[in-house]
Amino acid sequence: MRGHPRRTITTAALIAASTLLSGCSGLQASSSDAELTVSTTTAIIADLVEQVGGDRVDATSIVPHHGDPHSYEPSPGDAAKVTEADIVFSNGLLLEEPGIMKMVHTNAQKSAPKIEIAEKLEEYGGTVMKLEEDLGLDVLWLGWAVEGEVAGDGSQVRTTATKLDGPGELRVYLTDTLGKPKVYVDSADGLDEADSFTLPPEAHTHVNWAFSEPGTYRLTVGGQTETLDGKTAEIGTGTFTFTVGDDTEAPEGTSVLDGGHADVALNAETGKVYVRADDDKSGEPARLAADGVVLNVPDRAKAAVPKEEPYSFLGKAGDPLWVLPQAVIGKHVHGDMDPHAWADVANAGAYVRRIEAELIKADPEGKATYEKNAAVYLKTLGALDEEVAKKLATVPEQNRKLITTHDAFGYLAKAYGMEIAGFVVPVPNQEPSAAEVEELGNTIREKKVPSVFLEPNLAARADVLRRVAEDEGVGICTIYGDSFDDKVDDYVSMMRHNATELAKCLGEDAR
């Protein structure tokens, strides 16, 4: 069953890294017969490029197998490879960690086309959909966002905390996939240019907001654009009010946000600073003037400073702390649209058609080869699409619910009649409470989920999900999202595995 109409899919360290990459499919060393040297951001895209390019291309991936494009930090070796590329393919839609794209724009030849495939996917017969995020937190889920376009490839917007009035200290930090904090703002030693971070245009990121004392805080932030050639321009300031603790009253005449998903937002075009909040009625984000809204941090957000040394910047271990959590662990910058479009096999066909067109532009003499290879592979994808749909059609209606470690399967669910029941990750640097563990168990029981799914490259994140699944006696299965591994190293194998695993783990006899 598909959710849309059927479509026809017509140094020593660097040496070691190079050796490792050369042993992976899609990451081979340069071929002397290749007409084009191609750099891609992910191994999935590298595989698609190789299917179309054949022997005429030498494709390498920046993010290695087992890597996460949302958080991978490129190395000098990655930059060196990009400088040799005749063309660079990325996914776009803010899938890639901003540092990857900055590295591409900084190091790639000016003459090399830089193609963000999914940005024009619909022109090649694909579909894109909005990214839906809802963890059901019982406190406000507050991030940072940049809206509005900025001229220049690789340009970014820097947001800086310039002033804080309040009874205690504010720390804004991100917890990476290994559980280590990266501090963006720390008022304890005063605020200066270091209390800042950058985001690409139209991007959003999750962070933790930690307050040391109850009371009212007023945080002033300012923004500036930054281009790759070092030029900057100021674009606006604004002040946001936080009420921390249940006994702190909001200023008269203001509205209070104490739940749902919201961002401290800066518009790079207008210079305005505001709160962007989800509107349940319209489904579109509401933009609220900073001076008219209060961001509430209630006592139910109260925690304690972790005992681990990396968190000592928050205060003495065990001291009280009021925290609006990052919720999604790891560095995860994204936009409004879901970038994981390849999870629908029909969309993979659109990727292939775009790659075919761009390779022909870069290498007109290879036109016949690219057209032939693309036609053959599109037939393979058409058969794969039918195979995936047929396998997933065997899953009983009541079992068509996915609980995963990562919100990467919306396209798969829509295309093949599944439902995203939730992506479950722990709140960073906090042990889940007994109530939270119980709630997850209740969700699994109420939805009668036969199995949960872990991505191999993100499995380390999912201790809570694994433990609760074991307690509830449900299956723990694997599903591939953003990355290959040593067992699955091409797109067809990945989607075939996913369909087989879903059919088996959600089937009639799964429990």
From TrEMBL:
Keywords: Metal-binding, Signal, Transport
Signal peptide range: 1-29
PROSITE patterns, alphabetized: PROKAR_LIPOPROTEIN (PS51257)
Record localization: Cell envelope
DNA-binding in keyword set: no
Primary residence: other
Top-rank lineage group of the source organism: Bacteria
InterPro entries, A to Z: ABC_LPXTG_lipo_actinobac (IPR022434), AdhesinB (IPR006129), Bact_metal-bind_prot9 (IPR050492), Lipoprotein_PsaA-like (IPR006128), Surface-anchored_actinobac (IPR022435), ZnuA-like (IPR006127)
Keyword flag Nucleotide-binding: no
Family label: Belongs to the bacterial solute-binding protein 9 family.
Protein name: Anchored repeat ABC transporter, substrate-binding protein
